[in-house]
Write a structure and sequence with these properties.
This protein has 316 residues and is an alpha/beta fold. It has twelve helices and nine strands.
């Protein structure tokens, strides 16, 4: 069975209704697939995106992930079909798709702020992308507004179509930025730009996103997905998957480190662990022999014993 056929079989088994998944050349393409609704985000999409990244991490055939949108939008934000109750989750507990929402509000009207049901759905997706062991590339084909913009932030590389528009519109809807964007956005574009975009809530063009560092490059619509695929294949076809997984997590998590010594500790362990691996022997030998390397270590069974280091006090 080919990679594409295997992906189709897996997609059929899990039957996602808001996404399309396709695996080819070791690249899993996740397409937000509600084009009639401009790929707006709902509870089903939240669950299916988390499941898609679970699948990506569990499948060693996947070496990179591309996220894009079907139709003319990437994601036009939250599904507003509930009108003014859209973000009042307690008021629409049944339709919100979150178990326990009713229990989060006590009989006296006070809120149990630590209740699992209070958690933001966009944040669940952002945290899952953050934890991913595969590189994630966004191909923003059209408007990316609200959660459509914030879900991009934990992705590693963001490419945009000339037709793309971006908007952190939360203050214009009476709410606040979500999906962990108060952590991600200032790190991606700087605090001043992050505050300008989030406090004004205005929608801006791809050229401004490029100038502000939100996206890597802007492409003609027909050239966007090929450019993203070329980047994904460059990574998937030339690098050691375990090294990529470690590098991704080391870079992201060191953004919050208080001292470079913390990075030195993890760098040292990673160099020591990788230095004894079959991948390093292959990588060096292939370089000396002037041939492509064939890396055999797999993310599912060859990560170092100390990974994830942030959960193990022995390695703090």
């Amino acid at each position: 069975m080919s990679e594409t056929q295997r992906a189709a079989a897996g997609a059929e088994a899990t039957a996602p209704t808001t996404l399309r998944l396709e695996l080819a050349d070791h690249v899993l393409t996740v397409t937000l697939d509600r084009p009639e609704a401009l790929n707006t985000f709902n509870a089903t999409m939240m669950r299916e995106l988390v499941a898609a990244f679970d699948r990506a991490d569990a499948d060693d055939e996947v070496r990179a992930v591309i996220v894009t949108g079907a139709g003319r939008a990437f994601c036009a934000g939250a599904d507003l079909s509930e009108g003014g109750k859209t973000f009042d989750y307690a008021a629409r507990a049944k339709s919100a798709g979150r178990a326990g929402l009713a229990e989060a509000v006590r009989p006296d009207g006070t809120v149990d702020w630590s209740h699992e049901a209070v958690r933001d759905g966009g944040g669940r997706v952002a945290l899952r992308i953050f934890a991913c062991l595969k590189p994630v590339i966004a191909a923003v084909n059209g408007p990316a507004v609200g959660i459509g913009a914030t879900m991009l932030l934990p992705m590693d590389l963001r490419l945009a179509s000339e037709n793309a528009r971006f908007g952190f519109v939360f203050t214009r809807r009476g709410i606040v930025p979500e999906a962990c964007s108060s952590w991600f956005l200032p790190r991606v574009v700087g605090i001043s730009r992050a505050l300008e975009w989030t406090m004004s809530g205005r929608v801006f063009a791809a050229a401004e996103a490029l100038e502000g560092g939100l996206v890597r490059s802007v492409h003609a619509p027909d050239a966007l997905l090929p450019a993203a695929q070329a980047l994904a294949r460059e990574i998937a076809g030339n690098t050691a998957p375990v090294s990529v997984a470690l590098t991704r997590q080391m870079m992201w998590r060191m953004l919050g480190a208080e001292h470079p010594m913390l990075a030195h500790r993890i760098d040292s362990r990673a160099i020591f662990a990788r230095g004894r691996s079959a991948d390093v022997r292959e990588g060096v030998t292939a370089f000396l022999e002037k041939r492509p390397a064939h890396f055999t270590d797999r993310v599912t069974d060859a990560m170092p014993e100390w990974f994830p280091w942030w959960h193990d006090p022995r390695y703090e």
